[in-house]
Amino acid sequence: QDSSLPVGVFIWEVENGKDEDVDVSIMFSLQNGTGTKEDRSGGHWNEPFAFEKDCERVAGVLLHHCTHVNPFTLAISAREKAGTGVIHLTAFNPTASGREVWQDLLQDGRLDSPAGKSSLTEKGEVTAAAVCASCRVPARGHRTLELALAWDMPRVYFGSKEKLHLSRRYTRFFGSGGDAAPALSHHALTHYEEWERKIEAWQKPILENSQLPSWYKSALFNELYFVTDGGTIWVELPPDCHAEDLQGPAGAGLSHLLPVLREYGRFAYLEGQEYRMYTTYDVHFCASFALVMLWPKLQISLQYDIAVTVVNEDVQPRQYLMCGQTAQVKLKNVVPHDIGDPGDEPWQRVNAYLVHDTADWKDLNLKFVLQVYCDYYLTRDSVDLRDMWPVCQAVMESELKFDMDNDGLIKNGGFADQTYDAWVVNGASAYCGRLWLAAVCVMCKMAEVLGDAEIQQKYTDILSKGKEAFERMLWNGKYYNYDSSGSDTSSSIMSDQCAGQWFLGACGLDQGEFEVFPKSHVVSALKTIFEKNVMSFAGGTMGAVNGMRPDGVPDTSSVQSNEVWIGVVYALAATMIQEGLVEEGFRTVEGCDRTVWELLGMAFQTPEAYREKKVYRSLAYMRPLSIWSVQLALERRASQAPAPVQSPQVPIQP
């Protein structure tokens, strides 16, 4: 419940260092609107409110933003208690100097607190409101002033305006009538102390672990900003929704689809604040660890939404930018790139991505299968695993067409047919080939869990052939070549070449009978990446460049091979830690973290990528949530070995 609330709480601790009492007033002012031209559309108004429940009272101002599409109410408020008074100013002009507001406050530390509603704004006019909390702080004493912001937009249209989504998640607990802002404010101000206790209990084991460096603790928790700040939408299903409304024309056959979505709602977040597609799946593959480790039912809900789209198709033609060719929007039994554009109608029309026809991408289907098993491994929910099993079989059967010579290994198609959508790859590849074999491995494991001997034998045979082909075609004695094309850059060292091993390690399938890749080869590849992509790039202070030539010069064959992808660096560090290269893993991720949070000053807007000098791309991006896979690797390692995890002894100086 409380994870869904549209609220913020601002706590002011006031200490009086003087030998006499001091009267203190703190004012919170806010414009009615969101800073867009609609703020001047006219018809908006404000009114004071008070809300009391269980002998607790809050008071403030409601700011009603009355647009034709997606109207909402903001509430600014403060908590009344013994010794604390709450006063307000219902409306003022925020485009002027604000002199009348300040003069009113400065005269006696109070606002006028007029009764009644404000008048409606005229077209072109903007309005604002203020609330003020006041108290007397005794000499050498301490007081706390508590203020809150809430916003209530229970019903939403996306850009197409075709379908009204009747209820955001919080309306399950506070109603969808558009009048919840006072109750939301009250709940926030009377529960925030409980939230703080729970947050502290959750973070304490990590924050008090002296073996973990402070920069890591900061990054781990602070990268979670994107879960809420990533254009996130969390809505309830309509009360009259039926299974057939969700399954699509093909009938997905997911028996638990309706119960899961009805209980936990539909959840989606953007690839990035600049790349406006919901739940871009090749990127969510990396970010998924944050959801499955912290809000596992949201990850399961998201997976059901993807599964539904797999078995359905969209035959509408579309021209793609990179090739200029026309193809249908969505093929059957293929995982979509995304679930839609917020400017259109997400969930209803998927694949907003226009650059490539992703039906020919080699990684999307595999990433679905890997996530299905990882979700099961971390949640132990066999009901959802059984529900997803036919979908996994369908997408893997679809993927088999990319193994043209039947050697057990898929081949890339000579264009950028995976998440590196500007980096051409041809033939067998370290990235997609390893993802494929990892997915084949988890198919074997899922078949074993579910007692499907026929499918288990089928994929065991494929895995046996594929492992031999992968090693023969790509292993060069030190690392795995980028691809098998024999081109000038096919021997490049890709920092993400162990992505499949990363997921297998996270799922406990990296040793024993399920060991897919020789441990000695994996460790050698990781050490080579550390030597070349990390330490030979920017003096080892900026993480791992995506592509590096064997002579220690970055691969400049594409815009993406010459970049550092923060989310990929986090995944690489997790893989290193899984394989026992703990110091190398911390050194790798520290350079990346310090670059973003200190050198570039991009706190709470971590980009997708940067280069060594002056260039960054796509601020506020989904993929860096993969840092939670580092924490998973550390926890797994700590549970297996008695010795504590050691952090690097020499800090990086950016």
Automatic annotation (TrEMBL):
What EC identifiers does the entry list?
3.2.1.45, 3.2.1.46
What SUPFAM superfamilies does the database record attribute to this sequence?
Six-hairpin glycosidases
Catalyses which reaction(s): a beta-D-galactosyl-(1<->1')-N-acylsphing-4-enine + cholesterol = cholesteryl 3-beta-D-galactoside + an N-acylsphing-4-enine; beta-D-glucosyl-(1->3)-O-lithocholate + H2O = lithocholate + D-glucose; cholesteryl 3-beta-D-glucoside + H2O = cholesterol + D-glucose; octyl beta-D-glucose + chenodeoxycholate = beta-D-glucosyl-(1->3)-O-chenodeoxycholate + octan-1-ol
Q: What is the main EC category here?
A: hydrolase
Location(s), subcellular: Endoplasmic reticulum membrane; Golgi apparatus membrane
Q: What InterPro entries does the record point to?
A: 6-hairpin_glycosidase_sf, 6hp_glycosidase-like_sf, GH116_catalytic, GH116_N, Non-lysos_glucosylceramidase
* UniProt-recorded name of the protein: Non-lysosomal glucosylceramidase
The organism is: Haliaeetus albicilla
